[in-house]
Specification:
Blueprint lengths: L6 E9 L5 H11 L3 E13 L2 E7 L2 H12 L4 E6 L5 H13 L5 E3 L14 H11 L5 E2 L3 H8 L8 H11 L4 E4 L10 E7 L5 E7 L9 H14 L4 H17 L18
Parallel strand pairs: 1-2, 1-4, 4-5, 5-6, 6-7
Antiparallel strand pairs: 2-3, 7-8, 8-9
């Protein structure tokens, strides 16, 4: 029947080198065998050496993208990526509340895994107030969890405390990703807190490589794909984590400096 095939959408920026952003999301959707639609919020020009130019889409254009998808497709799950400013965040939130795009996975692109801030304060506050309460699944990296909660990152149970606080802020299910900046690091542990109170840790080997661009995008996209296939939140998170680990472990030699993970890897 029409629109029976599972369809999902990424609401994010376009990354011209294909390693992150919307391109990483679409590669993940393809690997997970779901149909991926897009709402472009921005475009950046860059390569494995860095980002060199960017432009944001207008609020009217973003709203038109939402409208056109809603009037033709059956979107079963959605995710957000980089939303560059407060206007874009408000526009995305307004349209997500207007249309039925299924459960929302929010990848709060605020700070890089190495601690560099990406969002200005006004945009950060808008994300907290408008987007977090819409999140079926929230996937902050370690430093984003610090920024969102204000908690001391050196607390032994920081990730658990942060996850509970983020639930109180409106996110229903939270995955606080582990640190990637420790000396002699051998593992990475993510902490998951589900809406029903279930919690668990996911620990995988740490791979020392320069080819990790788009890891967070891929994780949130894989969760979105799994939800679009009808899986539970817990199953979606576990399967997505296994997939991303395989993508990093079985690398692909693309780009001179900071390259992509391998979306064709199979766990």
């Amino acid at each position: 029947m029409l629109n029976d095939y599972p369809q999902v959408v990424t609401i994010a920026g376009s990354d011209s080198d294909g390693s992150a952003g919307m391109q990483a999301d679409l590669l993940t959707f393809f690997a997970k065998r779901v149909y991926g639609a897009t709402v472009i919020t921005a475009c950046v020009a860059g390569n494995s050496f860095g980002i060199h130019a960017g432009v944001n889409m207008s609020a009217d254009f973003i709203s038109q993208e939402f409208h056109d998808l809603a009037t033709d497709f059956h979107i079963r799950a959605a995710k957000t990526g980089m939303l560059a400013d407060a206007t874009i965040i408000n526009t995305v939130a307004d349209n997500y509340e207007k249309y039925d795009f299924g459960p929302l996975v929010v990848d709060p692109v605020i700070i890089t895994k190495h601690g560099d801030q990406l969002l200005e304060q006004v945009a950060f506050e808008t994300l907290v107030n408008r987007l977090l309460p819409l999140a079926e699944v929230l996937t902050p990296n370690f430093f984003e969890a610090v920024k969102l909660t204000g908690l001391d990152p050196e607390t032994p149970d920081f990730q658990a405390q942060a996850a509970h606080q983020l639930q109180q802020m409106g996110a229903r299910n939270v995955m606080v990703k582990g640190r990637h900046d420790q000396a002699d690091q051998t593992t990475v542990t993510d902490y998951v807190l589900l809406e029903n109170g279930t919690n668990f840790e996911l620990t995988e080997p740490y791979y020392e490589t320069t080819h990790k661009n788009g890891t967070g995008d891929t994780l949130s996209a894989a969760i979105t794909a799994e939800l679009g296939l009808g899986h539970s939140v817990e199953t979606a998170i576990r399967n997505a984590k296994t997939y991303v680990d395989a993508c990093i472990k079985n690398g692909i030699n693309v780009g001179h400096q900071f390259g992509p993970i391998n979306h064709w890897a199979t766990p």
